[in-house]
Amino acid sequence: MHPAPTTSTDVMKMVKHLFMTYRNGIVADTLRKAGLPFGVIFGLQLPQLSGIARDIPHDIHTARMLWADQNVRESRLLACWIFPADELSEQETYSMACGVLSREEADILAFRLLRHLSFAPVLASRLISHPDTLPRYAGQALLRNLNQGEN
Question: Are both 93 and 61 inside the same structural domain?
């Protein structure tokens, strides 16, 4: 058991250590060959990221640090788990969705975070009308998640 991290920087160090611990070269190679646009892919699977998310603080500073780490696939995905939805504005989440780097990231962002926002339907509408493919896909993913909640 590790001592509880006390700062966002400590959390980031712990997270990077866990990424190395759980890395899966076979999955990473497969994702790289599939064309994911990240410089670093550790190959963690979603249950592993979910487990890490349970063990770290869900604060806006750490989440923003992870999201800003555009070079590492797992950092971006993990951020989707730990962003506190009640601390995000519509503009910030719109910018996040417009900056997604892959369909996987758009799907996880929509499922883990965006669908929980009070303004999610408005956000989905804005994204669906975006001229670029990935933000539009993020809007469609969000809409799918919102519609599933109605069933």
Answer: no
How far, in Å, CA of 141 to CA of 20, rounded? 30
CA atoms within 13 A on the CB side of 141: 22
Which tens digits make up the pLDDT trace of 1-59?
A: 455 666 888 899 999 999 999 999 999 999 999 999 999 999 999 999 999 999 999 99
CA distance 95 to 22: 30
Backbone angles phi, psi at 40, to 5 degrees: -125, 125
User: Which three-class secondary structure state does DSSP give residue 40?
Assistant: strand
Task: Show the DSSP H helices in 5-119 as ranges.
Answer: 8-22, 25-33, 46-54, 60-68, 73-82, 90-98, 103-112
Of the three residues 58, 83, 108, the one that is the final residue of a domain is 83
User: With contact defined as beta carbons under 8 Å apart, do 121 and 92 qualify?
Assistant: no
| Domain identity same for 65 and 111 | no
Alpha helices in 56-102 (DSSP H): 60-68, 73-82, 90-98
Total domains present in the chain: 2
Residue 45 is given by DSSP the state -
pTM score: 0.92
Contact 48, 73 (CB under 8 A): no
